[in-house]
Amino acid sequence: MHNLMITGGAGFIGSNFVRYMLEKYPDYHVVVYDKLTYAGNLDNLKDVAERFADRYAFARGDICDASTVRETIRERNVDTIINFAAETHVDRSIMSPDAFIQTDVYGTYVLLEAARELGLERYHQVSTDEVYGHVPEGASQEADPVAPRSPYAASKASGDLMVNAYHVTYGLQVTISRGANNIGPYQYPEKVVPLFVTNAIDDLPLPLYGDGLQVRDYHYVLDHCEAIDLVLHEGKLGDIYNIGTGSEMRNVDMTHLILELLGKPETLIQPVRDRPGHDRRYALDVTKIRGLGWEPAHSCEDAIREAVRWYVENEWWWRPIKSGERYQEYYKRQYEGREVE
Ligand code: NAD
Ligand code: TYD
Known about the structure:
By secondary structure, the protein is α/β, with parallel strands linked by helices. The chain has two domains: 206 residues, NAD(P)-binding Rossmann-like Domain (Rossmann fold), CATH 3.40.50; 90 residues, Alpha-Beta Complex (UDP-galactose 4-epimerase, domain 1), CATH 3.90.25. It has 13 helices and 13 strands. Strand 2, helix 2 and strand 3 form a beta-alpha-beta unit. Helix 5 runs parallel beside helix 6. The radius of gyration is 19 Å and the shape is globular. The N and C termini lie far apart (55 Å). Thymidine-5'-diphosphate binds next to helix 7 and strand 8. Nicotinamide-adenine-dinucleotide binds next to helix 1, helix 5, strand 5 and strand 7.
């Protein structure tokens, strides 16, 4: 396992993972294979391209395009695929599910088929806690049935099922990890934490969905990267591993913490109409990954603190995104006229 193809490596978690792996393993080579959708951004890998020019390469391509996937694998002598590539935002999946089915389901199949045909050593699928659906009490364990409720979650769950099928049917050496809500550097400012932090910096309203009592496990992205690395090297083939802090936080408390850290008033909170089918609670049982000797270094509060600090210090990264026409159009479509009192 030395020549990694990291699909979706120009996105949020993928770019953090690329940096983490190149820093940690001086003999690994990485090719990032990424379509560069609205969420993909080569600025996320700018320092990587400079620091690791001899071991890092970028290939622009769609995971649904079987011939370019194969070409890249052959050219770079790839032995391992780690698949981060996906459409990832629940709200966008509600507005237009098509790209989610294409990339998260069909694209996953294309990668699996290439891995099987070309005899790759290993395939790792990066998945999400959302596949378990709303969890009213207790915490989801890896053996629990999937019960996705949004088009995003349904497409990710389908991808996971296909990964398992390739393991059982063809003996492909796979692992799957299911992460909680990641936050930290380079997260596209459509997801709630970077959206709220950057809005608050500019004294813009923070659109809080519904009653704000939904619960998430806000997890620091580099802790997630460390755990994926562990699953890759020490996980049991064919197995699933949940990754999160194993604790939980209400959205309203996350929002207050952000405002407090930035010294901004609570009057910035703007209640808005809830997301249709909104999963009120996700909660992961992380006993299994802990069994591999892993512990999250950051609590939800620490993770929010780190994220706030990064967005305060890195306006160069998010200002061009937020002022762009594509983002502005999305924001208007998503939030205009949605205020409630
Ligand atoms: P992101 O939206 O920031 O990045 C996704 C990346 O995939 C982008 O670089 C994009 O250009 C690329 N991509 C999209 N469609 C593609 C295609 N057809 N072909 C090639 N590249 C394509 O996503 P993220 O938040 O970094 O999430 C990465 C992975 O982790 C996803 O699989 C997601 O489901 C999973 N995940 C995310 C979270 C989270 O909290 N963000 C939590 C758990 C799991
Ligand atoms: P999000 O970051 O979209 O992640 P996910 O829905 O995949 O967990 O949203 C996290 C939580 O924040 C979720 O409960 C929805 C809520 N939320 C808001 O209250 N306002 C917003 O503008 C957004 C984007 C999300």
